[in-house]
Structures are given as C-alpha cells and as structure tokens.
Amino acid sequence: MTRASKTPRLRAPAPTRSVRTSTAPRRLPLLAAVLALVAVVATGCVRFPAEESPPPTATADPLVLPGVQTDVPIEPPPSSEACNATQTLRPPAEMPEPARMPPGSTMAEIFERGRLIVGLDIGSNLFSFRDPISGDIEGFDVDIAHAIAEAIFGDPQRVEFQVLSSAERVDALRDHTVDVVIKTMSITCDRLDDISFSAPYYVASQRILAFRNSDIRGPAQLAGKRVCAARGATSIGRMQSIQPKVEMVTTSTWADCLVLMQQGQVDAVTSDDAILAGLAAQDPWVQVVGPSLGEEFYGVGIPKGEDDMVRFVNGVLEELRATGRWQEIRNRWLSILDSGYGAPQPSYRD
C-alpha cells in the first residue's frame, strides 16, 4: 500500500478520550489502595496483616462498576507460535537523528503534528498509572512511550496519552486514533491480522491473584470460582482452556478487577505477573500464586501498513537494550517481582 492511499492519519480525538481532560480520581473506594501503592514506590516494601486477621468480605452494598460482564463466552487460547508472531522487521541500518525524520515517513507526519499520540490505560499499576500526588502518568509502558517520543522529537515529553480499555486497543490503531498502543499488549497471531507489532519489549508470565488466606494455589482450585480479567485480554481464553469450569468475569480495567475482589464479588484475578504485582502492591490482603500458565510477549501496537514505524520503533528498542536503559526502566518499576526474563531478544524476518 502506498502512503498516498492510506487512511488519512489521526483525526483530532474527542476531548473526553484524552487523559489530560480527566484529572479527578476515578473512584473513592480505591483511595486506600492508591495510598498503599505510594508507600510501595517510596519504600519498596509492603507490611502485611497478621495471619489470623480475615481479609475483606463481600459488602452489603457493593459499588456498581460499569461494563462488568459475567456471561463471558468461551474464547480460544492465545497463540503466537503458529505464525511466528514475535518475528518482526529489522531496524534501519542507521537511525535518523531526532527532529530529522525522513520526508514522507510516518515519523515525519508525527513530527509535523508536534506530539506522539499513545494509547494506554491508567489502571495498570507499575506499567501505566496516574501518580496520586503529582498527577503524572507513569510506569514501565509510559517510559517506553517517552523513549519513542525522544527519538522522534529529541524531547521525551512530546506525548499525548489516550485512555483505552483492553478491548479498544486494536480499533484505535485501525481507526488511526492513536499512533501506537503501549498497553501490556500481547503479540498474537489473531491480532496480526489487523495490526502490526514491534519486537517484544517485555516477556510476562500469566499467573493468578488470590487472597492470602484462601486455598487457591493454582488453576485446579478455580473450578466453580469467579475469576476476573480485563475484557479483551489474552488471559481469558488461556484460563478457560486450562480450567474449563472457571466462571470468568470481565471488566473494563484491571483496577476494576481489584475492586470486585475487594468487595468479595470475585475469588481471584488472572493476568500477567507484572500486572498482578501492580495490583498486589495496592492491597496487602492479596498475593500472586501458582505456576506460570503461559508466556506473554508484549509489543508496541502499530497500524497495519506502517512498516517504517515498525522499523523505527524496533530501532528505539535496540538502543534501549544496548545502552542498558531497558534494565534501568525495569529496575525502576518492576523490582517488586522476584524474578524476570531480562530484555527480550528480537527475531527479525528480513
């Protein structure tokens, strides 16, 4: 497809979709959880309650959350191996200097606009969340976004964030509402039918979040239990395939899953270990349990056909790995995890 035949790029988004227009906290019941996260960031540790103390139980008047779905259909488990999904395009032999993007390129269009528009959410603590004190959006994914903006503009702050649910990510790229999506987005064969991906920038492992005093230690104990996941996440299909008797509940955000768990409306949450670690950092009553249920390779989502942008982002990721900045980003946000895969190594198909 020639650049002239592409869908016109980036119509101005509706103001309500911009993070900048939504500065108030989303819901008061999470205030204590947010303050707990602040303590973790500041001290690097969490004080857990005594063993004999009971966890929160179901509330008489639970908070009604929008978008909760209980009749979740069976989904296929995610697949990345059948199509070699993690293989990607090689970076350019020489990366362009910041503020000197190749004429006619996707990056030049972004530069002319003056900002990189990034789709993410603010409910994935440690990856993308709003700091309750400064109001800034921070996290692992946010730092990746700043690195791409710095490579284009020479200024890492030239970023506009658009809040997306997990289910909205692919549509936002197809509609050119955003330039890229950086939102703990797993690279799968199904998604490659609609969008493109960078090389993996993080490898996660799907696990389970449960109450500390529960008997849940793995998927075997989830038969007949209600388990939450964000709508559109690959963890849904994998959990249904591993434990067919599970009762999945879906919400718009991972933060909503934690609220449902705190209210006693679900028994557990399943997602990638890094996302679950962010939830556990907010609530000392819960913990990440069980073995790995499968690996997830996070990639930067890019509109299909923008191969120049794929190569450019892969060049940014190469630089982050080579200079040690990737490890610095991981150490800053994910030191709460007791293990890690390190920076994933790319596999190029050309």
UniProtKB/TrEMBL annotation:
Xref: SUPFAM superfamilies: Periplasmic binding protein-like II
Disordered: region residues: 1-22
CDD domains assigned to the protein according to its UniProt record, in alphabetical order: PBP2_GluB (cd13690)
Domain Solute-binding protein family 3/N-terminal positions: 115-337
Gene3D superfamilies: Periplasmic binding protein-like II
UniProtKB keywords: Signal, Transport
Signal keyword on record: yes
A Pfam entry, by short name: SBP_bac_3
Matches recorded under InterPro entries: Bact_solute-bind_prot3, SBP_3_CS, Solute-binding_3/MltF_N
Transferase in keyword set: no
Family affiliation: Belongs to the bacterial solute-binding protein 3 family.
This protein's name: ABC transporter substrate-binding protein
Organism: Gordonia paraffinivorans NBRC 108238
Lineage of producing organism: Bacteria, Bacillati, Actinomycetota, Actinomycetes, Mycobacteriales
